Amino acid sequence: MKLFGQKRKETKTYDPALLTPAIRSSICTGEKAAGFTEKATGRFREVMLIRDERDLAEFRRRYGIEEEIETIY
Predict the structure, then answer these.
(1) Contact 44, 73 (CB under 8 A)
(2) How high is the pLDDT of residue 12?
(3) Model-level pTM?
(4) How, if at all, do strands 32-38 and 19-25 pair?
(5) Mapping DSSP to helix (H, G, I), strand (E, B) and coil, where does residue 18 land?
(6) Measured between alpha carbons, how far is 53 from 65 in angstroms, rounded to an integer?
């Protein structure tokens, strides 16, 4: 039984009326970051680094995202 070393699986929320989920990808290095773009300004706010498909699945689970995520280069 693991009580103290266990991470909590929390679900966070965002306002879909104001924010759009997006992946920002570097053309040069291939580094990817998941976050949200503001619909009003187009500004990107980074939430987490995406290293592989598991990180992307965790981002989707954490924020309850089921639709396609836009990739920004």
Answers:
(1) no
(2) 83
(3) 0.80
(4) antiparallel
(5) coil
(6) 15
Closest CA to 34 of 20, 45, 48, 44: 48
Mean pLDDT of the chain: 90
- Give the Cα-Cα-Cα angle 45, 31, 7 (nearest 5 degrees): 65
Which segments within 1-73 are labelled E, that is strand? 19-25, 32-38, 44-50, 70-72
Structure tokens at 1: 């039984």
Neighbour-count burial for 1-26, b at 16+ CB within 10 Å, e otherwise: eeeeeeeeeeeeeeeeeebbbbbbee
Confidence of residue 13 (pLDDT cuts 50, 70, 90): confident
